[in-house]
Structure formats: structure tokens, C-alpha cells
Amino acid sequence: MRRRLSGAGAVLAVLATVGATPAPASSAPRTEPVAAASLPLGPAGLAETRTTRQLQPGVTLTRIVRGADAPALGWTVEVSIPSGATSPDPDAPPSALNDSASADQLVADLRADGFEARAEKVTTARTADFAGGTLGWRVRVGQYDAQSAANTERTRLRAAGYTGAAVYRGWDGDATDQGPWRVDVLTIDPARFKGALKASYGPDLENREKTSELAAAAGANAAVNAGFFVLDPKAGAPGDPAGVGVYDGRLLSEPVSGRPSLLVRDDGTGTDITRLTWQATVSGRNASLPLDGINRVPGLIRNCGGTADDKPTSLPLHDVTCTDDDELVVFTHEFGKETPSGEGIEAVLDRRGRVLSVRSPRGGALPAGATSVQATGDEVARLSKLASVGAPLRIRTVLKDANGETVSPSTRTSVLNGGPELVRKGAAHVTVAADGMVQPGNPSFYYGWVHKRNPRTLAGTDAAGRTVLVTADGRSTAALGLSIPESAAVARALGLRDAINLDGGGSTTMVTDGQVINSPSDAAGERPVGDALLILPTRP
Fold first, then answer.
1. Which uninterrupted H or E stretch holds 288?
2. What's 383's DSSP letter?
3. Which of 51, 130, 345, 517 is least surrounded, with the fewest CB atoms within 10 Å of its CB?
4. Is residue 460 within 8 Å of residue 477, measured between CB atoms?
């Protein structure tokens, strides 16, 4: 069965805006205390306010501040734990978490050197596909009222040969913490929305732009950062989506196999959380070859989830770059000024799909309207047999959903990568194992990425069919951030029936009326990202 993703969709009944009644466009923002349906963060009864204003017909912004008067929680120094003889991998580098015996040995060493050290057991919550329980043990030194005091102790630890970082205890995720939390919510009501909801990657895929720059370039009234992307040049082309990317109906980045993605339509109807896979081939007169990727550096698969010969795995593995020496990758003009250079060959195709040239080494500019296919390793000989100058080559790509149905995006559809899934059919449904956040032998990754509080960007839909975009500030004493389980709880409290986690941390950004309204956590300020989701103004 083929599923057509068009701009049409049924308009469902309209409910009140999350946490407040939508304000008329001419009215001033309204702040009020919340007595019911508060965010499930910290103890019940914490002070919580919500301020709502209308940005344009069908679009409201609600700011939620919870626990603004919370007492400070203090700082400590978390010390990296060397792997001891009892560790699952005694040769592993120091990590935030380790087994109990390794942690106890470090505590003993620290105390012998005059530091007030302690070992703490870290227990994490169960999710839909992860049992939770004990992640490991961490080692901490001291308790301090000020970050400066913790930094001073960290310096003293380094001088003694230890490594570690000053951390605020409110980032640990303790359910008794009283805040503060700051959450911003954009709600798009398709019954009244006359603008456009579109994804943008900027001038090209291989470079990064700030969310505010993408919003300004498109004349958007509001925007949030969107999918995961390559950050380190060693992992590919910085800015390239690390997962599926469909823009104006064009598939420009392949899925991380089976991971969730956010599908939106220009008119705000039919927003969906869907899990996609893909199949792609390049075909000549006498043969057809499977493609490995679209618009990415050959051999580097960020977040993994590629083909069976990828190393170390073909399954999703978040923030890991899998490798494959033998690849076929197709490039479109959207990638950038030049395709990636390196060993191998590249067949350059004209608009009709005929081979204009075959170049080796690969890499260079593409003529207007051209595409190319790059081959590395064993695939060089295979592509060479197909790609003689003048020969026709056909590139075919197919997206499929979790039911095996073909997904054919229209020009009014965008698809953005994300993960894990947070809410499904109104219930918490956190899929950290399926989506690659549970890494065997590396509990420290789960501890830092899932268990601890961080800035987050979330998206989903409510029972009225409205699209809801959420940012939560974090990594500061003024805003603690959210763990992944807390993100799911917040999404449910905001009325979302289905929700997904998008890129967070230093990427988390919300823009309205040309201004960044949240507090990005990077020391340098707003981070350039791979793509963003834009709310464009009402069409004339």
C-alpha cells in the first residue's frame, strides 16, 4: 500500500491552548498562577506560572516557570573513575560511572590524598524498552555553595593527577529537587493557522547555521532547532543531518534505520511521529547496485543504523560514528559547493541521468542540476562497470514506515530526525534501547545523555491535532533541564498524545519575532545547527 503525504488533513476539534486560553492578537501577554495540570517536576505544590501570547492566528507561545523560588542545591566535583581489575573492561579510559569496587578504590585513593570523597550509587528509571535499575557508581568530592569553590577544588584535584568536573546537584535528576524549570511551548492550531510549517537546512546541508539565522532568512515568526546533525569533522560533514531529512518533499538524508522522526505538513495538519527505513539503488543497463547513503561523507555513518556491513553495528547507536570502507553514496546539489574528496570514483550525472564524467579521486563541484554517485573500496569496481560516459543511470529511493508501507512525501511535507520516542497514544513510551541510547559497556553515556537533566527540544501532537513544539532550558542554576523520562512526563502533562525528542543540549533554541527567547547552554551562546523547524507568517 502506498501512503501519500499531502497537505490535506482533517481539522479536529479545537481545545484550549496548553495551560491557558489563547490570547487575542492585540492583547498583552497574560501571566497567571497555575492551580491544576502543573508540570510533574519536583514536589507537588511548587509555584508555577504560565504566560501566554498569540504570535499570529493559530500560533501561541506559552512560557512556563516552575519553582522560581527554589533554594540553591549546591555544587560538587565529579571525578572520573579509572577502570580497575573488577571493571568489565580494565583497559577502558576513565569514566563517570564504573563498578562498585573501582569506585571504592578511587575513593580510598582520594581520601589518602586528602580529599573528602564519596561513592554514590546511580539508579535509573525503567522505560518502555530498558529495565533501568543500577547504572553504576559515581565518585564525588565535597559540597559547595558556589561554583567557584567547586572549580577551585577541581583545580586542586587536577594538580594531584585526577580528572573531573564541577557539577550542580540539581542536574542529577532527583525527584525531590524544587527547580527552577523554564519551559517554552509553541502551539500550532491547524483550524486557525494560515501560515506555513516548514523545515530548513539553510543554503546547503554541509554547513551549520544558527536557528535564528534560518528563521531570519525565511522571514519566520518562530522557530526551534530540529534534528541531530554531524558536529565533528571526523564524523562527516558538519551540519549534515545525522538521520532522515526530507525538505519540500525531497529526501536529502537517509534514515537511521527504524528510528523515530517528526513528519510535518505546511498547513499544520497531520503532524506525525513515524519510524522510517529506506531502500535505494543506482541502476544501469545491465545491473543494479544498492546505495548506502545520501549526501554524506562515504564511510562515515553518524548514529549508525545503516547497512549490514557497517562497523561496529548496523543498529542505531546514538552519538557513535559507524564506518564502512565499501560504500555507494549519492549526492545532490543541496549538499554544498563541492562533494567530499577522497579515494574512489565519482560518476557525475546530468539532469536526465546520463553520465557526464567519471572522476578519480572523487570530489568536486557539480554542474547546475547535476547529481553524482561516489564509490569507495570494493564498490569502485562495481560502479565502474555501470558508469561509462554517456550511459544512463537511474537513482531510485523508497521510504517505508514501520508497517512496510511506502511513504511518498509531497512537496508540502518535511521530515526531521529525532529520538527517542517519548509518548505514544497518550502513554509514556520512551524507546531508549531501540533508538541507540543504551550502549553496551558504556553506562556513562546513558547517565549523561538520558538519566541526567539537560536542555531539551521536544515535538508532538495533542488530541486536537495541534502541533506542539517545546524547549526546556538547562545546564544552569536558573533552569535545571529535563532527563529523558522527565521529558516524556512533561510532554504528557502538556496534553501530547504522541511526542519525540529532537536534538537538545547546546542545540536547544527557540526563536520568536526575530529574537532567541530561551537561554542556549553553550558558553559561546546560540549554537549553529543542522536544520530547524520554522513557523512562517500568515499567507496573504
1. strand 288-290
2. H
3. 517
4. no
Return the residue matching grid coordinates 537533566.
453
pLDDT in tens, the chain (540 residues): 444 444 333 222 222 333 333 333 434 565 554 444 799 999 999 999 999 999 999 999 999 999 999 999 999 999 999 866 565 554 556 799 999 999 999 999 999 999 999 999 999 999 999 999 999 999 999 999 999 999 999 999 999 999 999 999 999 999 999 999 999 999 999 999 999 999 999 999 999 999 999 999 999 999 999 999 999 999 999 999 999 999 999 999 999 999 999 999 999 999 999 999 999 999 998 899 999 999 999 999 999 999 999 999 999 999 999 999 999 999 999 999 999 999 999 999 999 999 999 999 999 999 999 999 999 999 999 999 999 999 999 999 999 999 999 999 999 999 999 999 999 999 999 999 999 999 989 999 999 999 999 999 999 999 999 999 999 999 999 999 999 999 999 999 999 999 999 999 999 999 999 999 999 999 999 999 999 999 999 877
**Structure letter (DSSP) for residue 123:** E
Confidence (pTM)? 0.92
Query: Phi, psi (5° rounding) for residue 107?
Result: -60, -45
Q: What is the DSSP letter of 438?
A: -
Sheet holding 288-290, edge to edge: 2-5, 406-409, 394-400, 277-283, 288-290
- The Cβ-side half-sphere exposure at 349, using a 13 Å CA radius, reads 22
Closest by CA to 280, choosing from 328, 312, 315, 248, is 328
**With the C-alpha atoms ordered 450, 456, 461, 463, is the resulting torsion angle positive or negative?**
positive
For residue 317, how far is the Cα from the chain centroid? 13
CB count within 10 Å of CB 271 equals 23
CB 501 within 8 A of CB 418: yes
d(CA 447, CA 165): 15
* Cis? peptide before 420, omega within 30° of 0: yes
Quickly list DSSP for 317-365.
EEEEEEE-SS-EEEE-TTS-SSEEEESSEEEEE-TTSBEEEEESSEEE-
Q: Do residues 534 and 214 touch, judged by C-beta distance below 8 A?
A: yes
Return the SS3 of 486: helix
Listed residue (212, 169, 247) closest to 413, CA to CA: 247
Q: How far apart are CA 78 and CA 101, in angstroms?
A: 17
Cell numbers linked to 139: 565518585
Biggest distance spanned by C-alpha atoms of the chain:
75
The number of beta carbons lying within 10 Å of the beta carbon of residue 397 is: 14
Other Cβ atoms less than 10 A from the Cβ of 521: the count is 21
Q: Are 421 and 460 in contact (CB under 8 A)?
A: no
How far is it, in rounded angstroms, from Cα 190 to Cα 306? 36
Closest CA to 196 of 265, 266, 247, 271: 266
Contact 186, 468 (CB under 8 A): yes
